[in-house]
Amino acid sequence: MPEFLDFGKNTVFILACYSASLLVISGLVIAIIRRRVEAARKLLQLEKTQESPKS
Amino acid sequence: MLSYFANPVRFQNLSKWMVPILGLAALGLILPAWIMGLFVVPVDYQQGEAFRIIYVHVPAVIVSSAVYGFLAAASFVSFVWRHSLADSAARAAAPIGAAFTFLGLLTGALWGKPMWGAYWVWDARLTSTLVMFFLFIGYITIRNTIRDENASARIGAIAAMAGAVNLPIIKFSVDWWSSLHQPASLMRAGGSGIDGSMLPPLLMAITGYLCLFGWLVLLSMLSELDERRARALIQRKSGRKASTASPQMEGNPDA
């Protein structure tokens, strides 16, 4: 383990806290952005088919 | 003012410039706060290096309570005035609040082990925070299981408003009962008890988490608005198909 990540006997607890925070927040951000992109894409697709009812 | 922002078009226009600002602010505050918390702030004279967990634990628990307050307030507006945007806000806030509360409980447990010798104790502060986590989960379950949108919104709003009674219990539990959890050191009468060298990254992290919540809740609300419009378009389309199909059916005796 690199020296700058060595926090003595509490290293495991500190790194676990920061890693878990990074993981949960990243997961939340990715899930919400994916939903946003999917919702916008689906709406755009529907609006296009509304504009051209023949297709 | 509420009715001014309750207009979905106005809300979307406002969100267009709020979303990038909040996203950048969240990133620009949280990352430096974590780096400072891990590598710059001095070691605490009592808790040693384990003190560094404060920069992920305290923002998560403070913001999770704030998110619950937001959920209860949005539910109240949705229940009384039946604003669909307030309902969207409540619905969007719940999973984010659940995630922050989960992080608060997890980082608290990981801080508790080296400090108290146990990951979990049935202490008033910890237990009331766990209750808040279940309140978030309960609200999400209500919203996802009741099919009737109006009934789901109203029952969810009642549950969220009733659960708000837990917020003062979380805040004052350390004063009302003898607790293993340390008393308030940031938001207390007479000012913060945290040393000036350790305080700025903590305030940056709390503000960053608040911006992160704002960013994510706006993105979720925009998604829900788009999903509602998509559902409306599909319904209109299927209605049009049915109306064009019915005269043919009337003309065909075999149909």
Summarize the structure in words.
The complex is a heterodimer of chains A (55) and B (255). Chain A is mainly α and 55 residues long. Chain A contains one helix and no strands. With 255 residues, chain B is mainly α. Chain B has one domain: Up-down Bundle (Four Helix Bundle (Hemerythrin (Met), subunit A)), CATH 1.20.120. Classes of the chains: A mainly alpha (55), B mainly alpha (255). The A-B interface holds A 4, 7-11, 13-14, 16-18, 20-21, 24-25, 28-29, 32-33, 35-36, 38-40, 42-43, 46-47, 49-50 and B 30, 34, 38-39, 48-50, 52-53, 56-57, 60, 95-96, 99, 102-103, 106-107, 110-111, 113-114, 212, 216, 219-220, 222-224, 226-227, 229-230, 233-234, 237.
Quick tags:
heterodimer, A: 55 residues, mainly alpha, 1 helix, rod-shaped, B: 255 residues, Four Helix Bundle (Hemerythrin (Met), subunit A), 8 helices, 78% helix, disordered C terminus
What is the topology?
The complex is a heterodimer of chains A (55) and B (255).
Chain A: H1 11-51
Chain B: H1 2-5, H2 8-40, H3 54-81, H4 84-116, H5 124-145, H6 149-163, H7 166-176, H8 199-251
Helix pairs in contact in B: 2-8, 3-4, 3-6, 3-8, 4-5, 4-8, 5-6, 5-7
Helical segment count of chain B: 8
Quaternary status of these chains?
A: heterodimer
CA radius of gyration of chain B is 23 Å
Given the helix and strand composition of chain A, which structural class is it? mainly alpha
CATH domain class name of chain B: Mainly Alpha
The stretches of 5 or more residues of chain B where confidence is low (pLDDT under 50) are 248-255
Largest sheet of chain A: none
Beta-strand content bin of chain B: under 5%
Protein structure class of chain B:
mainly alpha
**What CATH architecture label of chain B applies?**
Up-down Bundle
- CA(first)-CA(last) distance of chain B: 55 Å
Q: What spatial form of chain A do the alpha-carbon principal axes imply?
A: rod-shaped
Query: Distance between the terminal alpha carbons of chain A, to the nearest Å?
Result: 60 Å
